[in-house]
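Hypothesis: this fold can be encoded by more than one sequence.
Test: take the structure tokens below, design a sequence, compare later.
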């Protein structure tokens, strides 16, 4: 099978790679994301692809991009970190590169990558839940990436779980990502540091007694070292994840949930409480098969690999 190129346009880095038919990155190049102008981003992405072209052939390019992508996969309607409004990214890149280009939401592309080459490669229905700064997600339904009528399906993080709850960047209150994300974990850990210093001794040591200096990996490290407060914080986070997943199961009934994102590096410390809460909250529990859970396996490259695979499938 011929290789394709995947590009992941993030808020700080643009990463591009030649990906073979088995989902392996055979050559990779990275650059900082320049400012926020679409033209500069297209120029940087194009120069990365040209650099890759010196190392091997490819027949199409897939782009994973944070934001809302239209149903035709041609336009970025809106991107939270980049000043794009209705940017015709596909035609801009095709003009530069002279190969077919497909664009996809980054979480959807990551779900497609984990579906083809990760733990979900043997199932037809899966949901990827990415726990990072926010909660991202993507759904594969009956072997197809679920995109919806307008291309914006699978925004799992904006499912409302707490009416009137924390304000979310999307404009609503009580979204799942306000409770199940790495940001929620940090918010809660800082609260423990401020209000219960006796419990937070380890976290205070790691963050130099400054709650504002605390970051998610501190909590994961402390929990792995056996710190009871950090284990409990991850357990609370896992409970939110599992309860939300049970609601997702009520709608799409996947056979596997894949947990990804930086916070998922906590492994079983997060996965076990998530699965336990999922089982407790599953509708009709005890009378239905239960989805299995797995940790994502493609890491930060899931979006790039998934986008390259979408390009291969959709090359025109
Ligand atoms: Zn929201």
């Amino acid at each position: 099978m011929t290789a394709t190129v995947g590009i992941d346009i993030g808020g700080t880095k643009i990463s591009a790679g030649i990906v073979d038919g088995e989902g392996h990155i055979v050559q990779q190049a990275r650059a900082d994301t320049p400012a926020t102008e679409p033209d500069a981003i297209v120029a940087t992405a194009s120069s990365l692809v040209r650099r890759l072209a010196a190392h091997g052939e490819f027949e199409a390019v897939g782009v994973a991009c944070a934001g809302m992508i239209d149903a035709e996969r041609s336009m970025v309607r809106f991107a939270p970190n980049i000043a794009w409004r209705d940017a015709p990214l596909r035609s801009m890149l095709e003009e530069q590169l002279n190969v077919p280009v497909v664009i996809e939401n980054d979480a959807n592309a990551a779900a497609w990558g984990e579906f083809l080459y990760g733990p979900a490669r043997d199932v037809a229905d899966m949901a990827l839940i990415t726990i990072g700064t926010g909660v991202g997600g993507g759904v594969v339904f009956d072997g197809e990436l679920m995109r919806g009528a307008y291309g914006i399906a699978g925004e799992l993080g904006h499912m409302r779980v707490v009416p009137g709850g924390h304000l979310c960047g999307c404009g609503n209150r009580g979204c799942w990502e306000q409770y199940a994300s790495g940001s929620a974990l940090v918010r809660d850990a800082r609260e423990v540091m401020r209000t219960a210093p006796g419990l937070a001794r380890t976290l205070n040591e790691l963050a130099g007694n400054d709650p504002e200096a605390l970051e998610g990996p501190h909590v994961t490290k402390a929990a792995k070292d056996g710190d009871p407060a950090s284990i409990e914080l991850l357990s609370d986070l896992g409970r939110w994840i599992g309860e939300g997943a049970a609601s997702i199961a009520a709608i799409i009934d996947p056979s596997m949930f894949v947990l990804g994102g930086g916070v998922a590096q906590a492994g079983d410390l997060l996965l076990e409480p998530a699965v336990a809460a999922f089982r407790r909250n599953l509708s009709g529990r005890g009378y239905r098969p239960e989805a299995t859970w797995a940790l994502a396996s493609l890491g930060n490259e899931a979006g790039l690999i998934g986008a390259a695979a979408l390009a291969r499938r959709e090359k025109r």
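Residues 123-296 form a domain with the Nucleotidyltransferase; domain 5 fold (CATH 3.30.420.40). DSSP finds ten helices and 13 strands in the chain.
Hypothesis status: open.
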